[in-house]
Design a protein that fits this description.
Blueprint lengths: L1 H16 L11 E2 L4 H7 L1 H13 L3 H4 L9 E5 L2 H10 L17 H9 L2 E3 L10 E2 L4 E2 L1 E4 L5 E7 L13 E6 L5 E11 L2 E6 L9
Parallel strand pairs: 1-9, 2-10
Antiparallel strand pairs: 2-3, 4-5, 6-7, 7-8, 8-9, 9-10
């Protein structure tokens, strides 16, 4: 009888673990909240992003209250990407043009942000694979600013065997040529999905 009870207890624990998800801020996972609420819960990565969104007048796109964009896919620009933009965007005297987010012209801020947003919810498996060794393959989508993005999955090798390792996701702006890799894909929220871009990515015009 004691053994049976122990077995039932073990199965209960294992069953609970089926949906266990450790949230490390940028890890994949499902969240029962809006994209805006998710950002608020992870300020170390997204507080500057929220300031940027509000400065651009786009909060309704990210909190799910804009009737035209009930679901969006955001190639997420984190705090470090924004900080790089502020530091590296310089004038003729090589001094930074902007000392804070509020110094960025609203129209520019809006255009840059919307170039990283696609209407509708698209998870990683919705995008095709790249054609290895080329700048082709993947799935072409149009951002809310009208920029054409080639979004593609990349296969990696494992233990020397090609194409069986972890898959990653990347974006390629077809006109400007700007490219970026996704650090963490498929952060699902109630009004869409975030594909968080790598910390080394500098916020830019796509």
């Amino acid at each position: 009888m004691k053994n049976i009870l122990m077995l039932i207890g073990l199965l209960s624990v294992l069953g609970a673990c089926d949906d266990y998800y450790h949230d490390s801020g940028l890890a994949n996972g499902k969240h029962d909240c809006t994209m805006w609420e998710y950002f608020k819960s992870q300020p170390d990565d997204w507080d500057s992003t929220m300031i940027l969104i509000e400065h651009a007048g786009l909060k309704e796109v990210f909190d799910g209250t804009n009737p035209s964009y009930k679901e969006i896919t955001f190639f997420g620009i984190t705090n470090l990407s924004i900080e790089q933009f502020l530091v590296k965007t310089t004038g003729d005297d090589w001094e930074p043009l902007y000392t804070c987010i509020e110094d960025i012209p609203v129209d520019l801020c809006r255009e840059m942000l919307l170039s990283h947003v696609v209407s509708g919810k698209m998870i990683k498996t919705d995008f095709d694979y790249e054609v290895k060794g080329t700048l082709t393959g993947g799935t072409t989508v149009k951002s809310l600013s009208g920029v054409e993005l080639r979004v593609y999955r990349i296969k990696s090798s494992y233990s020397g065997v090609p194409d069986i390792g972890a898959e990653s996701l990347a974006i390629h702006a077809l006109v400007s040529g700007q490219m970026a890799t996704v650090a963490s894909a498929d952060i699902e929220v109630t009004n869409g999905v975030v594909h968080s871009l790598n910390y080394t990515y500098q916020f830019t015009q796509l």
